[in-house]
Each structure stands twice: as structure tokens, then as C-alpha cells.
Design goal:
Domain Integrase catalytic: 300-520
GO molecular function, one term: nucleic acid binding
Region (Disordered): 706-731
Number of domains: 5
Organism: Parasedimentitalea huanghaiensis
CATH architecture of the largest domain: 2-Layer Sandwich
Number of helices: 31
InterPro entries: Integrase_cat-core (IPR001584), RNaseH-like_sf (IPR012337), RNaseH_sf (IPR036397)
CATH topology of the largest domain: Nucleotidyltransferase, domain 5
Strand order of the largest sheet: 4-3-2-1-5
Largest sheet: 5 strands, antiparallel
Strand content: 15-25%
Mean pLDDT: 77
Structural class: alpha+beta
Length: 731
Amino acid sequence: MTDQSVFLKSHFHIGSKDRIVIDGVEYKFVSKGHHSYVLQNGNGLCETFDCGRLGKLSAAGKIEHTPGYWSAAKAEKRATSDLLGFHELRPSQRKKTRIRQAFVETIELLMREGELKFNDVSLIGNKYEIVEQATNFNRELKLEEKKLFKKSEERAKKKRAKNGGTEQKVLTMPHPRTLRRWYKRYEEHGLIGLADENWKKGNRSSHFSPEENLLLNNTIRESYLSEQRRTKAGTYQDVKMAFSDANVLREKGGEARLSVPSREAVRSRINQLDAFEVTLCREGLAVAQKRFTPVKDGIDVRRPLERVEMDEWKIDLITILKSCGTFSLFTDEELETLGLDGKTGRWWVSAAIDCRTKCILGFNLVHDPNHFSSIKTLDMVMTDKGPWADAVGALSGWPGCGKPETAVTDLGSAYRSEEFTRACADLGITHLFTIGGKPSMRGTIERFFRTTAMNLLQRLNGRTFSSILNKGAHKPEERACLGIQDLCFALTRWLVDVYHNTPHSGLRGRTPLEQWEADMAAGNYALCAAPSTREKRLAYGLRQSRVVSKSGVTVLGVHYNCEGLAQEFMRKGKHEVQLRWLADDIGSVSVGVGSNWIEVPAVNECFKGLHAQEWVLARRNLAARDPKQELWREEIVARALKEITAKNTTKSLEFGLVTQEWSSERIKGLEDNLLSGIRIIEAEVQSDVLHQTDYGQEIVPMAETRPSTTSDALVQPKRTAKIKFPTEEEK
């Protein structure tokens, strides 16, 4: 049998009064063609479905078809009863319906065999035959039989004679008119017609008067639904007092007294309150949302770096804010700005996590969160983190490097800043803000912070705990003994070797590192590579304006020039240009020339790959040798920089994880006070070197020592003079 014949047999007829739902969308019949139907959805749009397509959808279980749903009979049924299917029946209704079905099926069988007529006389005359066959039919449903006669079995066990015997369960014959009514309803509506709604019978209205109900409800809401969180017993006392006060006023007015509700009545009325409303009024919106928000599988993330969540967390740990070692690069004023002033305090952690693999892609410590820390975290996401793992001697690698597709943040000032939003836009990263006050919308990063607090901070001295009640008599200020270097080491080592290698429930038992490696092995790579240094500089480099001269542009005492910039100067002369500058690498800057951005290298190659802080420290060391000297030879500057970089301080853990603020004001202050007037000239050729030739000796004179710009030194060639001395024969 071919596939076509299979789908031909799965065709069905759609009538004008049928209801049809295709893949969750409800349609109505419009017209029928030779091999197709025209159906209309709820928006009034019509669509043509050929019979083959309908057959495939039906075979896939994506069609709900209710024939005659819009007919008068079905509409009347919906108006008179809430039941539309057997699955909607209550357990008590299903029990009665099975008994009625047994009698109706028995009557239909006897009438078909000619042994019974459909009147009262014949029904009464065949009473025993009907009861016997209906009982046998009901016994075939063993599961339903156990449920139906459960109570009667328990009673029979208590009353059964000790001398044995068997128990016969026999149904009771109803009145003939009842049987005929059941049979007619079965013919008209099918099995669902045998169900009744006797469960709705009875007076379920409150015996309290409207005045009593109003006072009871208002008192319960004022007492129980409050932030004071009164108990049910306390609310009952409030209800009694409210009714007592009301009765005093009613007696004075000549009105009848109100009945005081009992304790059980108050408890029952409280239990009828909406659970979400109770939590909302007693514990607040955040708790109610957390407790009652539906939870499924979470956000569907299919590849690494598809969704990266970023947030800040003030760690529950007091550390000693004191600098040593690495931070000898900074002055006291700069250390105070960083928060390393020798006091004790708490740090903020700015972190980013990949929602697919649960790997931490970046984090840094900051004394006060700002746009510098948010951009630093984003930069770390797109940077190789191997050096940080090596710095702590981690046994595992630190995976994750690339440009995220979506960065999800809260509405904090660090993420709402112009610098951060502009950086995301320039890099092509979708920046998604979540609703304020709902940390569940960033559940992945919030869960990481909680895991860190529970698993790491409890092992460190100086823990402040999350609340005063949990802290008790503990004094973290007296126990604080960890410095910034210790904190950076503990966080990084725990993150790389412990967290990334711990099974995660959100990864179905895999560790974050295993999930990352599995995605890489399966070819499930991130869509974007990490941006280049030039792209980073243009996206979040410091924006500066400088004047172009024949020596190019100068930032922080470093001269930058190239052929493109020289041509721009020749066309326009001295004029102001915009540039982008990164503190991590001052070997180049990006300068806006017309509608393009060109990369301009530093005139002196010793600045390539150099951090700005290293250059500032080198200048301080040179100034300490001779404060008045402004001309420094290139080899002397290079030697000073080599001595500083030999300490490897800028590659250390703390230097990379503590956020530094390189603002326009800081650069201007350094240029005015420390780097003003400094010039770096090329190395001189020694004048005492003589080269012997056939005609005599070649003397290379020294270069001029007058002050000149770096650009002049590059443009002007060195001039040499050849002086020939005659030999003895020539004389």
C-alpha cells in the first residue's frame, strides 16, 4: 500500500456546522471544493486546505474535529448542561452512569431478540431477566465493579456468617418509566445522556445573613490578609470583637443581633481565600511571584553564547581592602579610587553566565558598580581566560570566548549607561532588559550567586551572612583576614575547578564543562567569533578628541602617526579629530578620518601591547631620576618599560579582575601633571666609531640634540659625511 492510499483513507467530511481546530487554531467551514475545503480562522482570514494535507494533519494528531458543534441540538445541550464529554464526569457520576448503561444495553438486547416490548407491562414482566443480565454486564467491568461495590463489600465482610457461603451482588431494578427515560436520552445524546447533575442538588448557600457575611468577610480580609500575618486563631478573636461591637450598636438602634460565627466557620472561610492573594497580602509581591509563577523547562537555548545573563552581586564577605604586590603600580590616590585604602568592606561581583552551558564567561570585582565594571565583564566574555586559570594553578581549563548574541541584564545604572548600551549596539549584541524587581527573569545568574554563597563563602573567614537573624552573634569584622589577592584566588580557583566540574540539575546531570565540551564535539558552535582588538576599541574604547599636527596625535604622552593621518594633516592642516583609545593596549589608537576609522600605531614600537598603567609607572620612574628632563632617548624608555613588564604585574590575577576606571578626567590629569612636555627621541649613533676604507676613514657625526618632535626624527634621514684622506702613494 502506498503512502497516497494511506492518506486517502484518512480523509473525513467537514460539515457547515462542524467545529475544527487545526494545530491550535480554530476554523469554521466556508465552502467545499472537489478535493479541498475553504476554512476561516478567528481573524476572518480564509485558507484553503486540500484533502491530502488534512489527512496528514489528522494522522499526526493535530486536528480536533467536532461534528455538528454549531447545530441547534448541540447548542441546546451546552445551554442546559455543562457536560460535553464522558471525561468531564465526576467519579460519582461515572458510577451511576455505568449502572444505567448496563440497564439500557440489556433492554436494547432483549428488544432486538424480541423478548421485550418497550412498555411498562413488559418491563415489569421481565424484571428478573433484566436485573440478571444487567448485573452480569456490570460484572464484566472489573475495575469499575470494585469501585462501585467497595462500601458494600466492607459491610458484607462485617455481617457475613461464619459458616461460609458466597456473596451475590445484584443491581436493583428502577421504575419502568425511569428505564424508558434513560433509554430515550441514550438514543438522543449517547452515553453522556445518561449522566445527571444530582451532585448540584442541595442548599449550599450560607446560613449567615447578608449583613453577617459582609462583616465576616471584611474582618477576615482586614485581619488575616495583612502584613502582620495574624494566625487563624488571632483572626477569630478579631471576628468576635467585630461582631460584639456591631451588636452593641444594633441594640442601641433597636435592630436584631448578628449571629457570631464559630471558630470552624472562620477557619473554613479563611481556607476559601485565594492562595495567591493570601501570599501577596501577607508576604509581598516578590514572594508571591516566586511561589506561584509557573515553571517549565526554562528558556530554550540551543547553542553556546546564544543568551548570556549579566548581573551584580554584593558578596556576603568582609575583606581587608588593602593593596600590596601588584598594586604597587598605583598611587595612593588611585588606590583609594579602587577602594584599596586599607579599611575593611564588601566587594561587588559583576558576572556573566552562558545560559546554554551554565559556564561563567566573565567576572570582576568592583568597589562601586558602574559602566566600567559592566564593560569590563563584557570584555572578559570575549577574551581568552586561560591566563587567569593558569595564574591560580587551576587543573581545568576555563572555556568560553566569543561574542554573545543576546545580553540579558536588569535595569541597573551600570547596564542602562550610554557606554554599555552603545558598546552592545556597535558589537551587534542584542541588549535585553528584564522587568525590574523580578530576579526570576535572570534565574541562571541568580542561581549561580546563590550557589556561590552557599558553597564557597561558608568556607571563608569574614562571612556576613544574608541577614541579621542568620548572623546572630557572629562578628565578621573581627574575623576578616582575607585581602583582595586572596579573594581573587579563591573565587577563580573555585569557579574553574569546582563549579565548572560539579553536576548541574539544569544540564540533566552534566557539569558545565562537560556541556561545553559536548557542544563543541557535536559542532554546536557559537554563531559569532570574538571581536578583534580594533572592533573592541571602536565599541567601548575611551572617546577622546585630539588636534592633528605634523607629529600626529598624542594621548597620555604617546605619539601616534601614520601615512593616512599625515595625508589628512596635509589636506586640512591642524584640526580636531575623534579617536578611540583602550587602556589594555596603548600601542595603537583608532582615529576618525572622514567617514572611516583608521588604525594609527604608536611612533615608538616599545608601546605595542603595553598597558597604560605600565607606561604611567615608567614615566614616574623616569621623573624620579631627573624631574626636569623632558627629552628621553628611546632605548632608555624601552629599558624602563622592560624592567616594569618583567615583574609581570599587569598579567597577574588581581590586576585583571579588579575594575579600573580610565576616564577622560583621569587622562587629562596625568597629561597635565605627569606627562606634559615629555619627548622620546631616537637613539644616537656614537661619534667615536670610525670605519676604515680603501680611501681613508668614514666619520659618522652625531645627530643634532636640539629638541625635535618624534615625527621629525622619523621623517628626516640621518646624514653621513665621507671624508677621504690621501694615501702615501697619492701624496
